[in-house]
Amino acid sequence: MAYTQVHPFGATNQPQYQPQYQPQYQPQYQPQYEPQYQPQYQPKAQPFVVTNQPQYQPQVRPFHDFNNDWTVGLCECCNDCGQCCYAYFCWCCFVGSLAKDINESKCSCCCLGNVLAVYRMKVRSVLKIRGGSCSDACVVCWCPFCAALQMRNELKNRGLA
Length: 161
Fold this sequence. Notes:
It holds the Pfam family PLAC8. By secondary structure, this protein is mostly helical. Helices cover 37% and strands 7% of the residues. It has a domain at 80-157. The protein is built from five helices and two strands. A hairpin with a 5-residue loop joins strand 1 and strand 2 (12-18). Helix 1 packs across helix 2 and helix 3 (112-126) packs across helix 4. The longest helix is centred in the C-terminal third of the chain and has 15 residues, at 112-126. The N and C termini lie far apart (107 Å).
């Protein structure tokens, strides 16, 4: 037996082990495979070709169906004298109770100008009353007492307050 050592970079200085006898194995039996079933027809894969781009068909439907009107007019705020006096003399408490009726924070009287318009938009959208945010802002800007009393009376008429 001869031993030679191989250098990692390919140089050989020392002997490396080389076996003198290498047995050779030959298989004695090698079975031949014959498939029992051979299909008559093999379908070829068809390429998928897009000839027309699918078109999007939008449904024509409004986002909200606002078909209701206010049951109480804006100038009918003095029909209930008690609510009118409550809104005039104790405005913060009135807006707080209105906020409670529409599931908002009672502390809203601190930011009166903006929050009343938001409350009016919320009441209008929940009750599906016709109108827009610009008209809500204008009504609240020029007549906040009438707007707040109209919301309160609308909620009462619909059984929500």
